[in-house]
Write a structure and sequence with these properties.
- Helix content is 42%, strand content 14%.
- By secondary structure, it is an alpha/beta fold.
- It has two domains: 136 residues, Aspartate/ornithine carbamoyltransferase (Rossmann fold, 3-Layer(aba) Sandwich); 156 residues, Rossmann fold.
- The chain has a five-stranded parallel beta sheet. A four-stranded parallel beta sheet has the order 2-1-3-4, with helices on both faces.
- Helix 3 packs across helix 4.
- The N and C termini lie close together (9 Å).
């Protein structure tokens, strides 16, 4: 059994498909009013360098739903992750106290370091390099609304960031056709593209033309232009991303019935307009909800 969940590149297609099926099954179970208390007596440690609404609440509720409990750990509670004491010591000590560790950090090396030295499962709840839980919740949402994943055309418009990278890895694993539309200088790195296409040839492409990307899209996806830790670049980024806003004009370039996605939080008026966020084709809040359902399934799977 796989111990950790750090990147989609580490996971087999079979495991990811199993997690999607389990997510849908548990979603149906809980919405029907039933419970699966398979993690009774288990404890989740939630380590945060970055604040969060969806990540904290969804993991906390998921753990409670499964009969377990969670501990929220802020950076100041422990003197900073890897600062007051080495990450390898933290991983070993937390393993003596809890049954699973979830970390939302800046550096990807932080979660891989925890996983190396922890004897309990470690979950990547977001790093600057990847956001695998978000991508899996997104795939679940796409499957619910379009009835399939393979062959779905997804146009990602915005920054070639951690979310775009994890979506590219998901596209390669599930056979989606993804076009990443970014301003020059903000593209996804070649290694990510090659790795995704190495799993499913030709599944990921890039362009600097958002309208071309949207022209055949089943889904238009965007994310913030200014991630946490890059606030000092806001003015430059807003200027550089001119023309990459998901607005009614861009949506009108896509086929009828196109779905709109955003991993939130959204800066309305920047990467997406209020009008598009609220339009009937928006499935933004469904994907936010599915963070809970996927993470419930992930916790159950990793803890056996």
């Amino acid at each position: 059994m796989q111990k950790d969940f750090l990147s989609l590149t580490d996971c087999s297609v079979e495991l990811l498909e199993e997690l999607l099926e389990l997510s849908a099954s548990l979603k149906s179970l809980y919405k029907g009013g039933s419970r699966d208390l398979c993690l009774a007596g288990k404890t989740l440690a939630m380590l945060f360098e970055k604040p969060s609404l969806r990540t904290r609440i969804s993991f906390q509720v998921a753990m409670r739903d499964l009969g377990g409990s969670s501990i929220y750990v802020k950076p100041e509670d422990i003197g900073g992750i890897g600062k007051r004491e080495p990450i390898k010591d933290m991983g070993r000590v937390f393993s003596r106290y809890v049954d699973v560790i979830m970390a939302r950090t800046f550096e990807h090396d932080t979660v891989t370091g925890l996983a190396e030295y922890a004897s309990v499962p470690v979950i990547n709840a977001l790093t600057d390099w990847s956001h695998p839980c978000q991508a899996m919740a997104d795939v679940l949402t796409i499957k619910e609304h379009l009835g399939r994943i393979e062959g779905v055309k997804l146009a990602y418009v915005g920054d070639g960031n951690n979310v775009a990278r994890s979506l590219a890895f998901a596209g390669g694993k599930f056979g989606m056709e993804m076009i990443v539309a970014t301003p020059a200088g903000y593209e996804l790195d070649a290694e990510t593209i090659d790795k995704a296409n190495g799993v499913s040839a030709g599944s990921i492409a890039q362009t600097n033309d958002p309208k071309a990307a949207a022209s055949e899209a089943d889904v238009i996806y965007t994310d913030t232009w200014v991630s946490m830790g890059h606030e000092e670049e806001k003015a430059k980024r807003v200027a550089d991303f001119a023309g990459f806003q998901v607005d009614a004009g861009l949506v009108n370039c896509a086929p009828d019935g196109v779905k709109i996605m955003h991993c939130l939080p959204a800066n309305r008026g920047y990467e997406i307009t209020d009008e598009v966020t609220e339009m009937p084709g928006s499935i933004i809040y469904d994907q936010a909800e599915n963070r809970l359902h996927f993470q419930r399934a992930l916790l159950k799977k990793l803890m056996g």
